[in-house]
Amino acid sequence: MGKKWSLNNVIAVDCETSVIYVLASLLKLPVINILTVSDHVVREEPKNMNEQTKDRIRKTFDLALKAAYETIFEFEKRVK
Hints:
By secondary structure, this protein is an all-alpha fold. The chain has one domain (2-79). The chain has helices at residues 2-7, 17-27, 51-79.
């Protein structure tokens, strides 16, 4: 399936963002979405990732969560 997407110049896939924005719109809530890349659209990832790769992925997700938390915290400070 990924090779077919690649032929159509698809470079990323996201399944949840649209739902987040629709729900936020319906509930009239502010929303932000931070995406991290976790795998490759065309190339299959190896079944056994080494610990260094797993650690890099964990650190990337941790940084994204920290950025999201800090953004929400700053937003709420300014709204009050």
